Amino acid sequence: MPDTASPLHDDGAALPAAGPLFLDARTPQSWSDRPVPAETLRRLYELARLAPTAFNSSPARVVFLTTPEAKERLRPALSKGNLPKLKAGAIAIVAHDLRFFEHLPRLSPHYDPSALFTDNPSLAETTAFRNGTLQAGYLILAARLLGLDAGPMSGFDNAALDAEFFPGGRVRSNILVALGHADGPPARPRAPRLDVDEAVTIL
């Protein structure tokens, strides 16, 4: 059972996707080693890629680590507290391509904005990071829709990870997401969130 009240439309009908996406979903503290099939991971990205990014720029690049050998390559870059999460069925490295704009003539055929970024690396980097971060969030929601648990991680050494997985420098890591299945029920109640009146201003 969710531990918060169901959000409602103005007409009082419960939001149909609120359960698996928000109300019932929890970030596991311990993970089962149950594998995540490659086809599920492909489907996960196929869903996440449909959500919006600026100019449809789609800068996220995802590496799914599923084998023990692949996960061991990540171990030296992880903080101590995140090491147990290597047990999860898959670990997604969500990175962003700093030269995403090279794909814009195809991804944004109605208007090609690539000239905005070609000689402006600062704008390109900001755009890649912001929209790549959005895509990491979409990936988490897509995972939940597919029946997977998802746990984002920021406790890692980006430089060490990039040296191992993205040595060319064009792609940079942003966030890690453990994917798979929790090992048992949540160990503790859901932590509090800020109330609407604390976090929202409506003008």
From TrEMBL:
Domain Nitroreductase, residue spans: 27-163
Tree of life domain: Bacteria
Single GO term (MF): oxidoreductase activity
Listed name of the protein: Malonic semialdehyde reductase
Species the sequence originates in: Azospirillum doebereinerae
Species classification: Bacteria, Pseudomonadati, Pseudomonadota, Alphaproteobacteria, Rhodospirillales
